[in-house]
Amino acid sequence: MKDWICFFISAFFAVIGMTAFLFAAVGVFRFDHVLYRMHASALADTVGVACLTLAAVVYIGANFVSLKELAVLLLMTLSSPVSTHLLAEIEYTMGNCKKESRRIDGLGGDEK
Questions:
Q1: pLDDT in tens, 49-95
Q2: Residue 48 burial by CB count (10 A; 0-12/13-18/19+): exposed, middle or buried?
Q3: Domain coordinates of the chain in residue numbers?
Q4: What's the whole-model pTM score?
Q5: At a CB cut-off of 8 Å and minimum separation 6, what does 77 contact?
Q6: Residue 20: is it exposed, middle or buried by C-beta count within 10 angstroms (0-12/13-18/19+)?
Q7: Residue 103 DSSP symbol
Q8: What percentage of the chain exceeds 70 in pLDDT?
Q9: 107 φ, ψ to 5°?
Q10: Where would you tag: which of 35, 47, 63, 92 has the fewest CB atoms within 10 A of its CB?
């Protein structure tokens, strides 16, 4: 009975993680500005990896491999948002973001 409970919990986390990656893929192809694309992929990257790692930890059980997976999860959770923020900062400050592409229709900026 315990094996089935662990299986369903890990399957739940795996489905949530894969759904996060699916939303990231849709967001990357749907959004037309690089900063919006980075935001969609960075959030889903953190959530997706966390859920898939938790699914593997629950399925495998408590052992040394699970400890290594949690260490990788900690590293990803700390480094992915920081690196995405730095890349977005570089994109914004280098002037590659045009004023027209940052403006949402009807909200601020110079009207045409």
A1: 899 999 999 998 888 988 898 898 899 888 888 888 888 888 888 76
A2: buried
A3: 2-102
A4: 0.72
A5: 46, 50
A6: buried
A7: P
A8: 84
A9: -120, 90
A10: 63
